Protein 1
Amino acid sequence: MTSPATRAAPLARRRSGRLLAGVAGGVADHLGIDVLWVRVAFVVLAAANGAGVIAYGLLWVFVRQEAADVTRQVSVKERQQAMGLAALGLGIGLAGAALQNQVVGWIVGPLGVAALGAAVVWREADEAQRRRWTSGARSGFLGGGRMALLRVGAGGVFVAAGITVFLLGNLDLGQLQFGVLAVLATLVGVAVLTVPWWVRLARDFGEERRQRIVTAERAEIAAHLHDSVLQTLALIQKQSHDPREVQRLARGQERELRNWLYGPSGYGRGGRPAPPGETLASALQAAAAEVEDTYAITVNPVIVGDHPLGDTDGDLRALVLAAREAMVNAAKHAGVDEVSVYAEVETGADEEEDPVRTEVHVFVRDRGKGFDPDAVPEDRHGLADSVHGRMGRHGGKVRLRSTPGEGTEVHLEMTIEAQREDA
Amino acid sequence: MSEPAVTEPTTGPITVFLVDDHGLFRAGVRAELERGAAGDPPIEVAGEAGSVDEAVAGIGHLKPEVVLLDVHMPDGGGAAVLARVRPVQPEVVFLALSVSDAAEDVIAVIRAGARGYVTKTISARELGDAVRRVRAGDAVFSPRLAGFVLDAFSDRPGAAPAVDPELDLLTRRERDVLRLLARGYAYKEIAGELFISVKTVETHVSSVLRKTQLSNRYELSRWASDRRLV
């Protein structure tokens, strides 16, 4: 049952090979020990003010039956042992109670009878649930023929009789007290008899909720796959004569799916909320995605650190635009299908320093044709205007390295200063 | 960690074992690796496996030099293979190969003992280079992995102080090398840029790999535990 490799089975009451409710067997399966020891433990506990009996009852009510119908062989000897132990446990519990004069009348007498009746009804409810599972039908609370009805009826009678006798035994109370006690006792009786039903109701509700969540999740995945992946695959089939277009579509879809799975608020993160607001990293990633889509190349941004990007951060926005222009330049002129982008945000670690200086470096690199920076023709304004001009206006620096035949690297650098917020 | 820096010249091709649950992908990689590029030392795919159990048995039987390992597989994935093979066959080196480039995945397999991480979009030529590099005892850092490691070791204000400076801090030189790796530079280009030898670059990268695997920095253990692998 429990080999060391497999994890311990979750606590569930046995449905077969049981004597009363399968509690002892379930506990034994869970702990990976012999059922006999569990039964002995319950008997020993029963001696302690009947704790074993109460524990058994509570476990019966709150632990669910195992779902799978496992057949177990129970030897006659084990069955006799179990019966003996059960009788012994009950006896010890009752004897223990009898030693304490105060409760002796209640437990041994009528309430004992009532408890016995409740046990019969609960056991029948277990049976009903088992039938419901095996037949797969949602039959009612009971069902299962005349014998079952008879047993439940008998149980009910036991409970009612127990309560009545208990009440009659307290007849010496005043009229009012007796009335209150009678109402309470009836309520308790009904509550005890319907415990299995309540427990099942609560469980069914939880199960239904779980099913609903699973269904909703499945629907969400299906919708996502349909909206994006299947559409893209259809487009790719139509465009199969144009490798550039196929590459563009595939790369765009890959990016979207990746973001959906691993992005900050992605599916794979359990739908954690995205960090609020735009950041430098998200803006650079968006720029890279745009260039990928427009020019059908691969842009791989690697970003270390981050900085929030508000509407007033004109300098940082200019930096993003300049980086985008550098990527476009590489895409247009380098003649490669891959561009690397590396951005690093370094915030001054010095606690005393005020204002805080943050250095941002962005590198855009390709391994394409390259060019001689001093021999750029007059009509190519991209780098000169968009990159140099923009960075210059916002207090940034541009360094350009290019060697014909080996590629180009544009290094953008900007230092921003901000007042320390908590100062 | 014992340094398997055995760089004795191998006779014959490098033997590689492929672990991936997608048969189509295995076939593609096998074809690419065995075709190889002219002039490069040949690579031979000794065997392949589609599940953790098959992989453990296959690696034990065939004793390959390098294992290309998929990160995401049913029944435990790459980390499960690493956990079962490494204690028995410490001489086998692992290169993780995955479509995912989420930090949790990358850092988790590196900390489980892989000597490198590349994404599946890597070109055949680069993959061949990466295999030869890990075989020679070096580490293979994709630009993204370099970025993650820089991020994890960065000293932000308010970050937890380093417990073991030997493991929890990168030297200035290691940082420089990582930055260039993240910018997409090849080892040779890094060597030229920093005026050091390629061998020195390799030493720095190996040292960064060791720190990434052994450091107790919060970011690293958090990324790894997000996938419940460490």
Protein 2
Amino acid sequence: MKMGMLASRNSTKAVIYIVCIFLALISIFPFWIMFMNATRSTFEIQQNSVAFWPSTFLSSNWKILVGKSFNPLTGFMNSMLVSTGATLGAVYFSSLTAYALVAYSWKLRQPFFTFIMAILMIPAQVSSIGFYQFMYSIHWTNSLWPLILPAIATPAMVFFMRQYLMATLSLEIVDSARIDGAGEFYTFNRIILPIMKPAIATQAIFSFVFSWNNLFLPLILLTNNKKYTMPIMVSLLRGDIYKTEYGSVYLGLALTVLPLFVIYFLLSKYIIAGVALGALKE
Amino acid sequence: MRRKGINYAKYGYIFSIPFVVTFLIFSLYPILYTTVIGFTDLRGLGRTDINFLDNPFQNFQIILTNATFQKALSNTALIWIMNFIPQMLVAFLLTAWFTNRRFKVRGQGVFKVLIYMPNIITAATIALLFYSLFGYPKGPVNDVLMAFGLTDEPMNFHLQKWTARTVVAFIQFWMWYGHTMIVLIAGVLGISPTLFEAAEIDGASAPQIFFRITLPRLKTIVLYTLVTSMIGGLQMFDIPKLFLLGGPDSATLTTSVFIYNQAFSGSYLYNRAAAASMIMFVIISILSALLFFILRDRDPGRARRRERELRRIARTLDGEVSV
Amino acid sequence: MKRKLGLMVCVLLILSMGLPVFAAGKQESSPKVINVWSFTDEVPKMLEKYKELHPDFDYQIKSTIIATTDGAYQPALDQALVSGGADAPDIYCAESAFVLKYTQGDAAQFAAPYKSLGISVDSLLKKADIAQYTVDIGTNKSGELVGLGYQATGGALIYRRSIAKAVWGTDDPAVIKTKVGPGWEKFFQAAAELKAKGYGILSGDGDIWHAIEGASEKGWIVDGKLYLDPDREAFLDMAKMLRDKGYHNDTRDWTDAWFADMKDAGAKPIFGFFGPAWLINYVMAGNSGGSAPGEGTFGDWAVCEPPVGFFWGGTWVLANKDSKVKDVVGDIIEWITLDSSETGLQYYWANGTLNGPGGTKDTVASGTVMEKSDGSLAFLGGQDMFDVFVPAGQFATGRNKHQYDETINIYWRDQVREYAQGNKTRAAAIAEFKQQVKDNLAIEAH
């Protein structure tokens, strides 16, 4: 009986490993192609756009890249400012709003939540016209702020934080903090935020990746090359329809994705941790 | 006895201020813009003389009877179902595996990291990659099929409607299942480990633990996952737009691509694009409401306990509690 | 605690409300600035040369480059033109796919007539001998010239010398042009002869589309309605015939297989490609599998007149009618588009000497410049390509173009592929095409 269970567990484990390794391989695949293409010439790529082995054009791609108004340092700094700013704002204020929705009983609570959900469901294409018309009309182009501040109101994240708090937050802990004489703001910052670590880490990754890769809005709002983010610079490389330098485009893409790896690996320890971090509710 | 007489409800309002202020500054105008221009004659560039239509619902009627919109709607539903179901199944399966304390999957940290990775590449790169993979008359997929003798002639995948839809659905699935999995795992990490320990001591099996302990406590997160995946799926734009421009023969034209085409492909039909957006908004709202209804807290005792707890702590009588 | 929170909200409010003012204040720029908007760095790079040639030029050039590939150039440019102010473009560029919107279409009201910039248009046009299609496209609805290009993008047939010799015994462009044209009938006759020897005349049906589109009498829109010109409708039958009879390798332009045919790596050797000079420079030379005669197909090519005249691509330069520095803008635009001297932009551009000697040679709009420039290329076995491309510019016409072309072409070619593939009947393909144009652009069929 025990032997049988062990055997079945072992075969289940084998299945798990096979599936996971397969999924991991197809996850790596596009990155591999991207890095390989970063070392190939435009014409090699045009002849065969998928290759598994590197070529010898890395340095010439780099030369084309920096020759074409691609400034990795400026792009990195701007992207970093936008993504970090937007992520911090989104994570902190979404948690705060979610806490307001879960921990307090107030008259407009349910309508407010419904309202947040409604914003989430409006398709973006037309609203984006309104947004950049508005930004142009108040002459707020070539500033990074319109890419950072709106993140304070991120409905999807409020929704997630609310759902997370509903599942994990025990109101008793809030109560006991009050008995200890803690202010509401203090309770949130010092007690609730640490409980939310796994939720914050996941949402921070998503938000960071989203801002980092965001292209259309920055492309329209930032027209001064000192304000360009990395994706804008890559997009410019593809600008000339008739003579796109694909080798340098892939190199640009590869450079753009590298910082994301770093951020992701830093934050992933909260997600991959084997033990629960802040559970309170039983 | 500081607590007495303090009305905690006001903190609900105070803590919501940053969100509301930001919303008012940045999003109110764009959203009103979308809502209002659907009822106007706004088309074309740099127009300042915008009038409301005599028949306010004219744009809505035009869109609803528009053959291409109807096609886009059914494509969106098809492609969404084709990616949503496998995405959920795989994400749940992986969550069950990775959070099961008995399997102790080795290297699971690495797997969790890798599986999310397709989500950090831009959609444009992925679309271009798949366009080349399925190239005709020469391309890696054709090469492989011919090498294994599965086909004698190269196949023109870009002209096969179902292949195109399947590829789009696959890309959507592949870019998002890791994302969904991470959300679910974050939810599981919020559950107290003592619960799992107790279950293990009682000798519960892995499926039992997952279905009896993990899932019920994950309900609110599951609701989040279902609702946001649905919204994301029904607003799917980048991949169908970039992979084959909505083709072949409109097979991968989704409603978001349709809306984009109305507004930006030449005629600047902003009014119709806005009307189509509002139609999609209504459809998505109905489906979301349905999900909220299905996954509502069906244990009235629990809801009541929660409410009592809230009231007791907050000492206010005017709250409404529901999910 | 409450104070802290209040402070936070205040800071937030100040940040949100105050920054626009701050940002707007920063943007007040001195009048000595010229804003240039473009979708590549081509024109901004030209202006560096302009500054070098004019040491007393003391304006600062502020260039804004936004790629067209992600569909953001036009929305951003439109907003900048509509909003005006210090950041509005003084000079802006438009690509052939959308130039008509800015010269004759929805955004035509922003373009300044060249005459209002102090350019003596009539005499210079004659002196520089500018290709007529460039002028047609750059002329607004009231007959004023508002935009001109610097490149000439008249197209030719670029063919393989070795295949020509194998089939017709000669590679002389003067003879080959009588084999493949004039007219499509002779072209398909040639296709049959090539096929008999195991060659394909073209790589895919996309290759003839640019020629058919450019040569048709009328464009997609006639009197505000969709019009299917008989020449364009015939593309359906030609595409099907090319496929059914195996005259091509069935590739789609800009895919791996299309590029592969340039170095003879496809299913069968391909005789030719239709294109302007830039196709040779930017695409074919690099994809020929070599960089000197004898390597790959390099040096095995020649150009001759196509069966029908057409042009493909090009950049037009426009000025904003609200520009505060019209005289200076006029001088720059004249230097780019109408100066046919040896210190004009086009002379450098034609001879590949803009950034020093040895650059790529290209055809330019001015016939005068072309005459005194040398267009011989090793890629073409030493042939002077200007001999063919200069007259090619005269065959081209800009009268059949419309600002919706890019979108309508996508729908049309999609349906042509469906028909050629045998997925649809001819009538169904045409009906679906009309339906798509109607549904997406609100344009009824005739």
